[in-house]
Amino acid sequence: MSSSVPIGLGLIGAGRHGIRYARHIIQDIPQARLQAVCRQHAQQGLDLPGSEHVTMYGSVSELIADPLVEAIIVATPPMLHKNICLAAVAAGKPLLIEKPLATTYQDARAMVEAAANAGVPLMTAQTLRFDHTIRLLRDAKPKIGRSHHLVLTSRIETKGRDPAHADGYGRRGALLEFGVHLLDLVRHVTGEEVSAVRCIMDRLPPADPETLAMAHLLTKGGTHCVIEVARVVAGRVGRAEWIGSEGQLTADWGNRQLRAILQTAVVEEQAVPQSQTVLVTVREFLRALGQHAPMTITGEDGCRAVELAEACYRSAQSGGIPIVLPLAD
Q1: DSSP symbol at 172
Q2: Helix (H, G, I), strand (E, B) or coil at 108
């Protein structure tokens, strides 16, 4: 792929989230062109300024076969990710796939192995990694010394959701849908792998997708991580509290604030600029392709996050018993 010629991108999925990708590609990324879009009702088009020359497909296979589509972005319900990924890999086309990478660890592992065996680049859009607050939190790790305790909280409102929404997640709920961001952050922020997971949920999928999950993760470095994920009536909360041997950090990515309380009694507070995480994600994907470099967030990273989710579900199904990692396939 030439760095001087815009990369032809194909977008599969043009729902609320897919449209965000389309808008950024058309309006903000001159090094790429939106060549084609696949959506369930192709006749709807995109209704975006600058999309007049985008080819619309109603079939995934047609988009993948388009010779002008050089790389593919997938923003469909995750139940569809595995089949799309395997078809694109067979065609040799690099992929950026929205989180979660898959609905089960088995599917995620199959996707990663297929891409690796074929030498096809695969990136997972764990977009929260690119939030400025999260980046500053990670950069501030040396200030608090040895990592002891990390608490991650995410609560998102229930309103405006289609009753069939959970079907696209394999009848799994809040933990897989948006809690997977927090599971990914445990590894990303601490730099430590997880050795064991315990989890309880208010409901047990697939019979009834959970709206509340509380998990305890222990890393190999000895950090105790507590994750709370919940659907709530209204409002959003996104917060991290990180305690170390020399101080503590509080990050609020909803309100874009970072606060450090250090052993010296110094309190540092910092306002954080607005983040455009989807835009940065696409740019990183294109940068890696153009430079033939490793993906910033690999398929393996996405697979590890799904593995942690899988461990949480297994623990909850068993009454909250600890699940040791790595999981057997």
Answers
A1: -
A2: helix
Q: How crowded is the C-beta side of 4, counted as CA atoms within 13 Å?
A: 0
Report the sign of the C-alpha dihedral through residues 243, 249, 250, 253, in that order: negative
pLDDT of residue 266: 76
Closest CA to 102 of 38, 170, 163, 21: 170
Report the mean per-residue pLDDT for the chain: 95
Q: How far apart are the first and last CA of the chain?
A: 35
Q: What is the band of 36 on the pLDDT scale with cuts at 50, 70, 90?
A: very high
Beta bridge partners of 9: 34, 71
DSSP code at position 14: -
pTM above 0.90, yes or no: yes
The predicted-structure confidence for 173-228, as pLDDT tens digits, reads as follows 999 999 999 999 999 999 999 999 999 999 999 999 999 999 999 999 999 999 99
Kindly provide the residue ranges of all beta strands, DSSP E only, lying in the chain, ordered along the sequence. Answer: 7-12, 32-38, 55-57, 71-74, 95-98, 122-125, 147-157, 194-201, 212-219, 224-232, 237-244, 247-252, 257-262, 267-271, 323-324
Q: What is the DSSP string of 204-229?
A: -TTTS--SEEEEEEEETT--EEEEEE
Distance (Å, whole) CA 168 – CA 175: 14
